[in-house]
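Quick start: load a record and inspect it. Here is Polyketide cyclase:
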Amino acid sequence: MRGLTAARIRRFLSDTATWESYYDNVADISFPLGGGPVLEDGLAFRFGTFGRGRPGPAAWTARQDGAPEEGLDVPHVWLVEDLSGGRVRILTRETQIGRPAAALARQTPNPVPNGHQAWLDGLVRAAEAA
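Running the structure step on this input writes:
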């Protein structure tokens, strides 16, 4: 993206109070041990997405304990960096391990990459509007 900086993007990614303003697949953000709404190393937080509440920073691991048909392990990483020419690169990568993730992967259209693209698009729109 041209005309944006990594710092501007990170502001919207790290402040969970802004998430619902630009991404409609997130809800019920909470900090069970206190802190927030700005993410920092070691801060525990939860949020709902795809109809599920998950603990979850620009990198987090979400876990949903339970029987094999319910358990999930979901590492999610964001890379936001300034490039030459006044550009910024925003990459996100997520790996989902567990039966619920396998079921999502078989859906057409697949809600996970579509949801991540919506998050990226909303993040850019919010940063551009700020």
